[in-house]
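Protocol step 4 of 5: obtain the predicted structure for the target chain.
Materials: sequence only (see below). No template structures provided, no constraints applied. The aim of this step is simply to have a reference model before the mutagenesis design in step 5. Sequence pasted as it appears in the construct record:
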Amino acid sequence: MKSKFFIILFLSFFLSGCGGVSTKGIFGTGVSIAFDPRSVGTQIDDSIMQKSLSAKILLYDKSYFLSVKTKVLDGRIFITGKVQDPEDKLKLTKLAWETLGVRSVRNDIKIKEKFNFKQSARDILITSQLRTALIINKNIKATNYQIDTYKKKIYLYGIAMSSAEKDLVLKEAKEILDVKDVIASIILVDDLRIQKN
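Step 4 output (structure tokens):
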């Protein structure tokens, strides 16, 4: 009984943060919305969807609240992280599809394996190298991209201002040393449902 009370209390605090969405960047990093090509309404809708999905994941299994990451861009849900078994991966995908307003779901969840410090260190290095390359390149709005690396595979999510920018981002990712593959889910501004005026 007590644990249900604390979960409900936590969720009420967690979901009450919807008001400040318009001051955050594409991935909630405190970046001004001036860099985000989505309309404020779309950003708010995406934030509500993301919080709703996070609450569902928390209710399904508290351990996945931190190990599974979700991003919502223009109604498209991207899921990354690690789970215990394939059934959990399917369940989380189902939860994402049941979220009100979803347009598509991209599931890049991996099944947990024994921790490998050397591999994790390499993945962190690859992520930081690519993040630095995107920031240094003046033709790329680095704040519009999120990077996850798992077993030398880069997972890129974001919104490109043009197809030329998208090509530049992919080129930077492929030039990072030791990268096995680049899996990109990059949306062009022109493909967004509703754009800023």
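Step 4 remarks: The CA atoms of residues 58 and 65 lie 5 Å apart. The chain has two domains: 20-111, 117-191.
Proceed to step 5.
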